Amino acid sequence: MDLNLKGKNAFVCGSTRGIGKATAEQLAELGANVTLISRNEDKLSHVAAELPVKKGQEHDYLAADFSRPEDLKDILNQYLKSTKKRIHILVNNTGGPPAGPALSAEPEEFRKAFIQHLVCNQILVQAVVEGMKAEHWGRIINVISTSVKQPLKNLGVSNTIRGAVANWAKTLANELGADGITVNNVLPGATETERLAEIITNQVNRTGQARQEITDDMKSIIPAGRFGTPTEVASAIAFLASPAASYINGINLPVDGGRTKSL
Questions:
Q1: To the nearest whole percent, how much of the chain has pLDDT over 70?
Q2: In this predicted structure, what is the pLDDT of residue 199?
Q3: Contact at 8 Å (CB) between 77 and 50?
Q4: 261: buried, middle or exposed (CB in 10 Å: 19+, 13-18, 0-12)?
Q5: CA pair distance 217, 211, nearest whole angstrom
Q6: Are strands 33-38 and 138-143 parallel, antiparallel or unpaired?
Q7: Measured distance CA(228)–CA(54) in Å, rounded
Q8: How many Cβ atoms are within 10 Å of 98's Cβ, its own excluded?
Q9: Which pairing describes strands 138-143 and 89-93: parallel, antiparallel, or unpaired?
Q10: CA-CA distance, 179 to 257, in Å (whole number)?
Q11: 3 phi-psi bin (left φ>0, alpha ψ -120 to 50, beta other)
Q12: Is residue 16 scored above 90 in pLDDT?
C-alpha cells in the first residue's frame, strides 16, 4: 500500500490542537512538508518545531483568523506567491460553533459559522486548486461531523453549517475528479478534544447532571464503548491524503466507533 507523501506539500487548518495537530503530525510522518494554519502564532511556532522532520522536509506555518476571510485570502496569496509552492493536500478543519438549539440561535451565529467554515474553505480551495490541477494530483479533506448523517442534539448551528459544507464538498468532488483531485469528508464522532470537553461542560451547566453521568451516557451509545482519540481520526485523514486513496472521492467517512445509526 502506497502511503508515501514525500515531496507533497500540505496545508492543515486548525492545527495547534486536537485532530488538526494529530493530522499534521501524521502527514509529516508520512513525508509531507506541512504548513500549519491557525490563529495563534505562538502555538503554531511550538507545534511546527515539534513535527517530525526527515531528510529534505520543511515545515512552516501561517497565522490567520478565519473570522476575517479577506485577510485569509491575502495571507494565502502572499505565501503562495513568495514560496512558489504547489499545495497537494488541503485539510479543512475549523472548531465548531457554540452549542445550543437551532430555534434560539441568532441569525448572526449562522452567518459567523458560515463564514468560518464554508466561506474560508472556499477561499482555501481557490488558492490551491490551480496548483493541484497542474500536478494532476490533489487531496481536499474536510473535517466536519457525523451530524451530516444524523443531526446531533443541542448543536443546531453546527448541524446546519456542517451539512452545507458536506454538500459543497460533494459538488467539488464532481467538478474536480477529472483533474486527479479527490474531495472527501471525515466525520469524527465523540473524540477526546477540547471541543468535546466544552460540549460536556455546556450540558452540565444546562442540565445540572454530574459530568461523569453525562460522559457515561455519551459512551453508552457508542458500540466501541469509548471516545475516540485525535490520532484515530487523523489516521483516516492521512489515508485519504495518500496515493492509496486515489479512487476514493466524494464520500462522508464517519470515524465514530459505530455511533452513527445510518449507513
A1: 100
A2: 86
A3: no
A4: exposed
A5: 10
A6: unpaired
A7: 29
A8: 16
A9: parallel
A10: 33
A11: alpha
A12: yes
How does pLDDT run across 38-91, given as a tens digit for each residue?
999 999 999 999 999 999 999 999 999 999 999 999 999 999 999 999 999 999
Amino acid (1-letter code) at residue 196: L
Q: Which residue has the cell 493530522?
A: 23
69: helix, coil or strand? helix
Tell the residue number behind the cell numbers 515531496, with chain if given.
7
* Burial class for 54, CB neighbours closer than 10 Å (0-12, 13-18, 19+): exposed
Task: Give the tens place of pLDDT for each residue, 134-182.
Answer: 999 999 999 999 999 999 999 999 999 999 999 999 999 999 999 999 9
Place of cell 467538478: 175
Three cell numbers at 124?
482555501
By the 8 A CB rule, do 47 and 13 touch? no
- Sheet harboring 181-188: ordered strands across? 60-63, 33-38, 9-13, 89-93, 138-143, 181-188, 252-255
Query: Which amino acid is present at 12?
Result: V
The two most distant CA atoms of the chain are separated, in Å, by: 56
Give residues with Cβ within 8 angstroms of 125, minimum separation 6: 90, 140, 172
